[in-house]
Amino acid sequence: MPEITFREAIRQAIDEEIARDERVFILGEEVAQYDGAYKVTQGLLSKHGEKRVIDTPIAEEGFTGIAVGAAMVGLRPIVEWMTFNFSLMAYDTVVNSAAKMRYMSGGQFSMPIVFRGPNGPAEYLASQHSQALQSIYAHIPGLKVVTPATPYDAKGLLKTAIRDDNPVIFMEAEMMYNLKGEVPEEEYLIPFGEADIKREGKDISLIVHAKPLHMVLKAAEQLEKLGVDAEVVDLRSIRPLDEKAIYDSVKKTNRAVVIDESWPFASVGSHVAWLISRNCFDLLDAPVELVSSEDVPMPYNHKLELAAQPTVDKIVAAAKEVLYLK
Amino acid sequence: MLIEQFNPLEDKMIQVMDENGEIVNADLMPDLKSEEILELYKTMLKARTIDSAALSLQRQGRLLTYAPNLGQEAAQVGSGYALKKTDWAVSAFRELGMWLIKGWTIEKIFQYWYGSEWGSHFGEEIRLLPISVPISSQLSHAVGIAMAAKFRGESDAVIAYTGDGGTSQGEFHEALNFAAVYKTPNVFFIQNNQFAISIPSSKQTASKNLAVKALAYGMPGIKVDGNDVFAVLAVTRAALEYAIKEGPVLIEAYTFRMGAHTTSDDPSKYRTDEEVEPWKKRDPMLRLEKYLLQNDLLKEADIEHLKTSFQEEAMAAYQSIEHTSDTEIEEIFSHHYAEMTPQLEEQLADYLAFVERSQR
Ligand SMILES: Cc1ncc(C[n+]2csc(CCOP(=O)(O)OP(=O)(O)O)c2C)c(N)n1
Fold it and tell me: Which residues form the pocket of ligand 1, taking CB atoms under 6 Å from any ligand atom?
């Protein structure tokens, strides 16, 4: 199988879907002539032309709203937000229009639209520019929220997202764009709501989504040196959520740490931890731990920004806590 | 007068000094003493020197991503110079020349781009807002600050900056509308440097210029040669005066970003040398230098001397902050709410315990 980057995997998905379905187009700041702020859309303008790959003025609420309108009448837009930080300018139209239009019209209007871009902390970007916002999107009924962490998952999930008739929030990460992984040449789709066991184990379940997966895999290696066999559950999509995969894992291990790079309060992570606590109460040998970002805006200073996020050490420490290891 | 008379629909712009350093519109030449003219020049030169120091420091990996300023010195210094000390300045993110005038020290500016919130801790004396990442989000804040000045019966004005790209944001339009309806003492200052990353102004708007946008909101709009420091100063002074008496004004300063968007950008991807070339002749520094030399306010030799001393000043400032910005973990938690919440105190204690355990 060829190895490609996370960036290329996303590009392939967009490219193939634009070619496959004449209703699909992508719009956003810098996506066309500049090949994308993070070069995700490189070459797509020259291949598909200005009708399908559209540069917009700097007006997130505007172009997101335009995409909502176009989706309502049957086009299938992909909206690229330069980063999810700027999606906040468009939050109203996502929450009040994209997520509710089908409901408000008694099912008449479909909303086949994908909102995508890098989410979560990158480096040296400070508080307004380095935020993990999955929890505020996952909170909204009517949206689907997908958070792949490997090139394989990114491609398969993005193709599914583009073919979905509902608004899908598709979260990438600047720090993952260069990450390599195997992706088959033949077409494949990955359904939403199916977690993937990225590492099998029997002693503890480490439940994660998005970029921190890679940290969790490192933590699992460290735990192995301590004689602990950790299972890593990658949720991949957080709405719909694969609850069964979570419970099956905890049934096996009786212990869980949830890792989420968003803030801890009312987050995807705290929700998953609550689900486990409630539904696996009799199975648990220890309280469920949550490793999240600290409950603060992202510092600009590099040492502090790293300290504010989940780290391998924090994950190992939480696992030891749950395993009652000193 | 200047403000009311200008008609942006005619698509002209105000110029006082041409590319040869000749005063072409003496009526509008601001009343300045020689020392004041020299101060304008020195501030522009200082901005340019700091800017190039910052670029090379960034290339050496000693500063984070940086947004260069080259070519926009007159727009920034001219507009900043028009402010009185108690007027507020609301930043976008590319206003080095104005920041220097407002009193943001070189040390603090470097500290900011070095990655420290302490860089944006200006102190109450300096009426300046920190850099705002979400484009044009600062403009409504500027209207709020101006409302507060009116509310308190103070006669201060507020200047707020954005770029040509920034005029596409909804918040730009909302801010202008509010300011005009509430008649707040606002001056909106657009640095039209022709590009928003790769997108040229022509793809940002179909208006024939940016000043014209003011008309629909019911406020005056003026287009000024942004590379002519005298014209920028004259127009901004008049606009501030008008703003305090009558209400908001929109200024479009027509200029050019000679360098990259930021240190992570390569402008050769979206613009040709032929596009850049004519702007070299319009360089705001060159023009003012010509004026100064022609009027015996400056000698060639002074220029080099000043450059060297600004370069030394910039490097000394940088060295004073390099390595000092490694702030303590506690600071993540302490500048977050007015008082630290019990939850945050608990988190901090947990954190410190974790650090201690992992160091054992
Ligand atoms: C809401 C928002 N969207 C996108 C960006 C990314 N971005 C940073 S600068 C910039 C271009 C700004 O152009 P302009 O307003 O003309 O100012 P200039 O860079 O030319 O000074 C963009 C799109 C941002 N910072 N905020």
Answer: A 29, 58, 60, 82, 86, 89; B 94, 133-135, 162-166, 193, 195-197, 257, 261
Task: Using DSSP bridges, classify how beta strands A196-199 and A230-234 pair: parallel, antiparallel or unpaired.
Answer: antiparallel
Per DSSP, the residues of A194-247 read: --EEEE--SSEEEEE-STTHHHHHHHHHHHHHTT--EEEEE-SEEETT-HHHHH
- State the pLDDT at residue B292: 97
A155 close to A12: Cβ distance less than 8 angstroms:
yes
Residues B252 and B346 in one domain: no
Of A30, A57, A300, which is closest to B198 when you measure between CB atoms?
A: A30
Query: Hey, is the C-beta of B207 within 8 angstroms of any chain A C-beta?
Result: no
Residue B324 has a pLDDT of 78
* Residue B207 and residue B351 share a domain: no
Whether the CA torsion A180, A185, A189, A195 is positive or negative: it is negative
Same domain, B63 and B177: yes
Listed by number, the residues of chain B in 122-181 with a beta carbon closer than 8 Å to a beta carbon of chain A are 132-137, 165-166, 168-171
pLDDT at B325: 63
Global confidence as pTM = 0.93
- A295 by Cβ neighbours in 10 Å (0-12 / 13-18 / 19+) ranks as middle
Task: Map tokens 């859309």 to a residue.
Answer: A41
